[in-house]
Amino acid sequence: MKLTHALTLSLALWTVGATAAEPSARSADPVSPGRVSAAIRQSLSARDELAGAVRNIDIVEGPEGTVTLTGFVSTMQEKLKIAFLATKAAGPDKVQDRLEVKKEK
User: How many domains does the chain fold into?
Assistant: First the structure.
């Protein structure tokens, strides 16, 4: 019986710890203005391969933590990475990706 209680408690603590670490689990919380866009910029700036792209994009934060990404990037891979990191920071269904890939001349 004690083993069952210990396993149940362990599973409960693991579940709480796993959800607390997920940004999407916090997306229902009230969001202070600028917090999500700042988190996205910090996440992008921390990646060397995206450092140049950060200067060419705008991150516009709307109501309830929604975010719109606009501007130009060099490659489709860059566009996908930025959108992924923004979604990770803002939460699912909170990011509108309007980034455009520059066409080479």
Answer: 1
Structure confidence by residue, pLDDT tens digits, 27-41: 445 556 688 999 999
Pinpoint the alpha helices (H) of the chain: 2-21, 35-45, 51-54, 76-90
Report the predicted TM-score, pTM, of the whole model to 2 decimal places.
Answer: 0.66
Q: Is residue 67 part of a domain?
A: yes
Burial (CB < 10 A; 0-12, 13-18, 19+), residue 22, is exposed
pLDDT digits (tens, 9 = 90+) for 13-64: 443 343 334 444 444 455 566 889 999 999 999 999 998 888 999 999 998 8
Q: If DSSP codes are grouped into helix, strand and coil, which group holds residue 105? A: coil
For residue 68, what is the DSSP state?
Answer: E
What CATH number is associated with residue 97?
A: 3.30.1340.30
55 belongs to a structural domain = yes
Query: Under a CB-based contact definition with an 8 Å cutoff, are residues 82 and 101 in contact?
Result: no
